[in-house]
Here is the input.
Amino acid sequence: MKLNRSTDMALRIAMLAAANPRRMTVDELSDQLDLPRNHVAKVVQRLQRLGVLVTIRGRSGGVAFAEGGGNATVGHVVRAFEGDDEVVSCDEPACSLRAACRLRGELRRARDAFLAVLDDVTLGELVAGPTGPALLALGLPRPRPASAPVAPSSGERPLPGAPPSGEPPSPGTPSSGEPSAPGPLPPAAVRGPARPAATPSPVGRRAVPDPV
Here is the structure.
C-alpha cells in the first residue's frame, strides 16, 4: 500500500517535532525537511486538530510536539490523512465483476492488516534510538571542503628559483614582495685603488738648470 504525499509529510513533520525539544517555525520545518512551505502549513494545522502538535502564536511562538503526542500511533495519523478509500476503485469505471468478485474483500483485509501493524507503533517510539539525533542534524550546516592551492595560469610564468606552487620558499630566497639582495659583481666590474694622476709637462719647453 502506497501512502499519499500528505501522509508522508505528516509523519515526517511529527517525527521532527517529537525529536526537537524547542519550538520550531513553519519555515524551519520546511527548510529542514525540504518540503514546500504552503503544504507544511496545511499539514501542521491538521496535526494540531489530531492532538499531535500544538501551535503558539506570537513573536516567540512556533510549532511544538503536544504533551501526549508521543502516545499517538502511526496508524492513527495514517487513517486521518488517507481516509477510508479502497485500495482499488470498483466504481470508476464500474466493474462488471463486482457482484461476484472476492478481490475487493481480500484487498480490504490486506489494508486492515497493514494499518493494524502501524497501530502498534507510536510516534514516540519512532524517534527513539539513533533516529532522534539524525532528525536534529538535518538543519546543521555541512562543512566546506578545504580549498586546494591555486596553480599559476597558462599565461603566467613563475619567478626564477621560485618553489613549486604550495611549497614554502627555501631560506634565503626573497619573496615576491621583498627586494632581492645584491649579488657579487663580476670580475670585470671590480676596480683597484685609484692611482694619482700624472702632472703633464709643458709642451715645447725644456727644463732650465738652476743657477750656481
Remarks:
- Residues 140-148, 175-192 have pLDDT under 50 and may be disordered.
- The longest helix spans residues 103-118.
- Residues 5-139 form a domain with the Arc Repressor Mutant, subunit A fold (CATH 1.10.10.10).
